[in-house]
Write a structure and sequence with these properties.
disordered C terminus, 12 strands, single chain, five-stranded mixed β-sheet, four-stranded antiparallel β-sheet, Alpha-Beta Plaits, 2 domains, alpha+beta, about 180 residues
């Protein structure tokens, strides 16, 4: 299975999916839009909020290049569409690190929730479970008070950072073997 990225209007990803499926009910290609859950504090009250992991990007699952090219005009004619990646003339499936990163969030479920972490004796974050697992090397900042870890993501040679939520499950007791 191949995964192809399209760029759409940021914060209109869900709208794009609904419009596309309404206009093209015969096209059954899975369209993935990975999201993340964060607690937002406003006026002293915390409330859950979902937002995009990859703002402005959707991922289409297709068997091969011919299948995606057969429907490219339907995608391009949907309101909010910008382009296929790498370009509209060079539609390329995700590969290598890009594919691994996208699959990490797609396979984790519709919404990346809170990770369970603890901090070791050197105050380094250790991820036990959740969407942060396997991304420890990408963490660039930890905010213990807000319960967020800022991670750096790279997609098609473009870098950006996002916050993912975590909850601390306790302190690690010192390992006796070390």
């Amino acid at each position: 299975m191949n995964y192809y990225a399209i760029q759409v209007k940021t914060r209109s990803e869900d709208k794009f999916i609904k419009l596309f499926k309404a206009r093209n009910p015969e096209i059954t290609l899975p369209i993935h839009f990975p999201k993340r859950l964060l607690d937002i504090r406003r006026k002293g009250k915390k409330s859950p909020h979902t937002s995009a992991v990859f703002p402005g990007y959707l991922f289409i699952e297709a068997e091969n290049d011919d299948e995606i090219r057969a429907f490219q005009w339907e995608f391009r004619q949907t309101e909010g569409f910008y382009r296929f990646l790498k370009s509209n003339t060079d539609i390329t499936p995700l590969a290598d690190r890009d594919l691994e990163l996208v699959l990490h969030f797609i396979n984790g479920g519709q919404i990346a929730g809170r990770s369970k972490v603890y901090f070791n004796e050197n105050s380094r974050i250790v991820v036990v479970e959740g969407p942060l697992i396997g991304l420890e090397g990408r963490i660039i900042k930890v905010d213990k008070r807000k319960g967020r870890a800022k991670i750096k993501l790279d997609l098609y040679n473009d870098s950006f950072s996002i916050d993912l939520a975590f909850e601390v499950i306790g302190a690690l007791e010192h390992d006796k073997g070390r």
